[in-house]
Amino acid sequence: MKPDIHPDYHEINIIMTDGTTYKTRSCMGKEGDTLRLDIDPKSHPAWTGVQRIIDTGGQIAKFNKKFAGIGARKAG
Questions:
Q1: Would you say residue 58 has pLDDT above 60?
Q2: What's the N-to-C CA distance of the chain in angstroms?
Q3: Would you state the torsion angle of the CA atoms of residues 18, 47, 35, 30, taken in this order, to the nearest 10 degrees?
Q4: What's the CA gap between 52 and 60, in Å, rounded?
Q5: Is the predicted pLDDT of residue 4 greater than 90, yes or no?
Q6: Which of 10, 12, 24, 53 could make an SS bond with 31 (beta carbons 3.0 to 4.6 A apart)?
Q7: Torsion of Cα atoms, 57 then 63 then 66 then 67, to 10°
Q8: Percent of the chain's residues with pLDDT above 70
Q9: What digits encode the pLDDT tens for the residues 25-53?
Q10: What angle do CA 27, 28, 30 make, to 5 degrees?
């Protein structure tokens, strides 16, 4: 292997959506940093089988406001 071409591989903390934490090794950030997950196997529909709308930053409301009148027929 070539020296000095690989990123620093260190231990970080992971916080799941339900608040549980664990440590893993990663190239993200620096030693001891924390990664808070928005979606994980405990909340993702692919693993839970339950559909749930996750609206981050009001994107669904923004979409509904922008396209509210499309498809609506006017009387006349």
A1: yes
A2: 75
A3: 140
A4: 13
A5: no
A6: 10
A7: -170
A8: 82
A9: 999 999 999 999 888 877 776 777 776 66
A10: 90
Q: What is d(CA 64, CA 24) in angstroms, rounded to the nearest whole number? A: 39
What the block records as the tokens of 2 is: 């070539």
SS (H, E, C) 22-73: EEEEECCCCCCCEEECCCCCCCCHHHHCCCCCCCCCCHHHHHHHHCCCCCCC
Distance CA 47, CA 30 (A): 30
> What six digits make up the tokens of 18?
């339900």
**pLDDT at residue number 40:** 81
Our measurement of the distance from residue 2's CA atom to the centroid of its chain's CA atoms, rounded to an integer in Å, reads 34
